[in-house]
Amino acid sequence: MASEILRQIKERFGNQPFRVRDAVDAGIRRHLLYRLRDEGLLLTISRGVMQPADSEPAMYNEFAALAARAPHATICLNSGLSYWDLSDELPAAIDLAVARGAHWPKIDTPATRLHRFAAATFALDRLRQHTDAGEAFWIYSAERCIVDAMRLQRIAGRDVVLSALQRYMRGDNADPLRLTELARRLGGAAQMTRALEVILA
Predict the structure, then answer these.
(1) Looking at the structure, do residues 6 and 93 belong to the same domain, yes or no?
(2) What is the 8-class DSSP label of residue 45?
(3) Residues 9 and 35 in one domain
(4) pLDDT by residue (tens digit) across 29-72?
């Protein structure tokens, strides 16, 4: 019985994190999911999110767990800077953006910091990325992470932002025009222009 339920789960979700609600909607009884968890065949990786225990641990699997719990949320700010290798900081909590006015589920684990971004520009430079195990999550581009961190320095930290901007500008794909364009659309254009002038001087 357990192996049959596990087979159904893997047919539907593969080895990726899945919401208990989605499994129940697919016809799998809730009590059977918890039985598989108690038998060590499923792992609870966040509230209401499970994954087969034999799944390979993936880099950034916490991002994938959050994507399963909050599919429309987006990794941002310091967590995004770290992902794009623009910061050596390991944030104590994952920075997660939701569109202002959108529903936000309660998330206990992994630790998160919620940020509400304007709905009109929420999708701007939002990218779908994958863990090394193929699990999908949303994250802002490196440029958007820098611009958001610049305009929200009180949250991201001024030193973190300036270091990230310097590291970005040393990279082969640096695009200062894209940074200023994003800053114009999102806010903080004057700050970004001044910072770029100092770095490029």
Answers:
(1) no
(2) E
(3) yes
(4) 888 888 888 888 888 877 788 888 887 655 577 888 888 888 89
